[in-house]
Amino acid sequence: QVQLEESGGGLVQAGDSLRLSCTASRSFAGRYLMGWFRQAPGKEREFVAAIRWSEGTTYYRESVKGRFIISRDKTTNTVTLQMNSLNTEDTAVYYCAAGQGIITSETRNPRGYSYWGQGTQVTVSS
Q1: Which of 38, 39, 89, 93 lies at 20 to 30 Å from 22 by C-alpha?
Q2: Are 108 and 61 in contact (CB under 8 A)?
Q3: Which contacts of 73-79 are long-range, i.e. CB under 8 A and separated by 24 or more positions?
């Protein structure tokens, strides 16, 4: 079992930056993928970004490329999502997730992730 705890959400203005962190209760062994998803009111949960825990390969949804950066720190079991140039469409609850053995073509599918955090609210005002 792995517990994931997110932090760093809040209310910001369009154009601002925000950093989200996700700390795992233990270190990872094997081929784990750490991801960030988000869900806006009335919408389905959608993929934002992911990173391979071992080698650090990253994946992003098209709309956040060049604005968001995902990284991981193996010494603290933490995954960070640096969000820059935020806009109102980024408003959502952001969830951290972890899964093992997820192939590249399935990185965007939330069903492949076994562990989820409780979520942190990000609100961007215009």
Answers
A1: 89
A2: yes
A3: 74/27, 76/23, 77/23, 77/24, 77/25, 77/26, 77/27, 77/28, 78/21, 78/22, 78/23, 78/24, 79/21, 79/22, 79/24, 79/34, 79/36, 79/51
Residue 26 β-bridge partners: none
| Side chain identity at residue 9, one-letter code | G
